[in-house]
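Appendix C reproduces, verbatim, an entry submitted by the partner laboratory led by Prof. M.T., so that reviewers can inspect both the input and the predicted structure.
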Amino acid sequence: MQLFLMRHGEAGYQAQSDRDRTLTDTGRYHTRLMSNFLNRLVTDFDLVLVSPYLRAQQTWQEVATHFPEPRKWVTADELVPSADPAAAASLILAYAEQYKADKVLVISHMPLLGYLVSELVAGIEPPLFATSGVCLLDKHAEQCHQVWMHNPHTIS
C-alpha cells in the first residue's frame, strides 16, 4: 500500500475556533502545487481520509480537482491535531483493509502527522510537515518505510 500523508494548506487565524480556520490564498496555491506534483506520481486514490477541520476539508476540495473521484472518501474525527496516533494509525489501516485500498491519501494536521509516521515506521523520529507537505510511506505486510517527503518549496 502507498500511504500519502498530507498536511493541510496554510490557514489564517481569523476564525471563531481552531476547527474553523480557512485556507489562505497561499495555502490554496501551495496545495495546487503539491496536487500537480502528486498527479505526476499517482493517477488516482482508492481511499481518502480527511480531518473534519475546515482547512483540511478545503485542502481536500482543492486536491480533488486534480484527481478522479476515489472509490471511498471519509471525514474522520480521529484525524484532528490532538488525536491519538495509535488510534489514527489503526483507523487508517482498518479502512485501507476494508476497502482493499492500495493508494491511500490522508489529509490531517501537525503534530498528528509526524506521530503517525513514527507510529507506522519503526525507529523513525516524528518528522515535521510543512503546510501542504506530503510524505509517502510504503507498507507491505508488517513492513513500512518512508519513501520521500516533499513540500511546496522542495518541488519547485
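The radius of gyration is 14 Å. Additional entries are available on request from the coordinating office.
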